[in-house]
Specification:
Helix content is 26%, strand content 17%. By secondary structure, it is an alpha/beta fold. It has one domain (11-197). It has a six-stranded parallel β-sheet with strand order 1-2-3-4-5-6.
């Protein structure tokens, strides 16, 4: 059935629903996982190949549905949540994927959506052709460990950085539940540079 599947997240992401895609089959993720970037420590690859393996069919369904064709509004989900995450698992697959996520934002103007991505060139390409929704927060997921980026790239609102255990000491993402922090989910949070220690 052509319905986008919404995930109920756990751990630090509990109480924030998400639309996830399959990291294990994403060509970008496969290419990046054997690098010295943060992708080399990918929690999603680890989980989806072990104790969350049962999530792969639903995430693959979303990967296929969101990346193969632009969906008409009737096929996009209605969201009944103040805050929502794109890519709790997964990464942007192609421009069509992002266009469909923008469609979800436009269909649900009452919800704050946050999208994490490393694929800034893909974002630039799509946003040259259409406006960014006001309720979409773009978080640039900096792939370099211990290289804290302060300025978000064009079109992005925030930067998410990772530091090693012996690295940068001023991390401000310290494992609390996201719903109790919301630094990434609100444009007016006062925090545009997020720093988390690699787990």
């Amino acid at each position: 059935m052509n319905i986008v599947k919404i995930s109920k997240m756990s751990g630090k992401l509990s109480d924030i629903p998400a639309i996830n895609t399959n990291t294990v089959t994403n060509e970008f993720c496969i290419k990046m996982k054997d690098t010295d970037s943060i992708c080399g420590s990918c929690y999603s690859h680890r989980m989806l190949n072990t104790y969350r393996k049962n999530c792969q069919p639903a995430f693959q369904h979303n990967s296929d549905l969101l990346s193969k064709a632009e969906l008409i509004p009737d096929l996009l989900p209605r969201v009944n949540s103040a805050y929502f995450r794109f890519n709790g698992h997964g990464e942007l697959i192609n421009e069509t994927h992002l266009i469909n996520l923008i469609g979800i934002c436009n269909k649900n103007p009452h919800t704050n959506f946050a999208l994490w991505t490393k694929r800034k060139n893909l974002v630039f390409s799509v946003l040259r052709a259409q406006p960014k929704p006001k309720n979409l927060i773009l978080v640039y997921s900096n792939p370099k460990i211990d290289c804290v980026q302060i300025e978000p790239p064009m079109h992005f609102d925030k930067v998410f950085n990772n530091v090693s255990k012996s690295g940068y000491k001023n991390e401000n993402c310290t494992g609390q539940k996201c719903i109790e922090c919301l630094a990434c989910y609100r444009k007016d949070s006062g925090t545009d540079v997020i720093i988390e220690r690699v787990k």
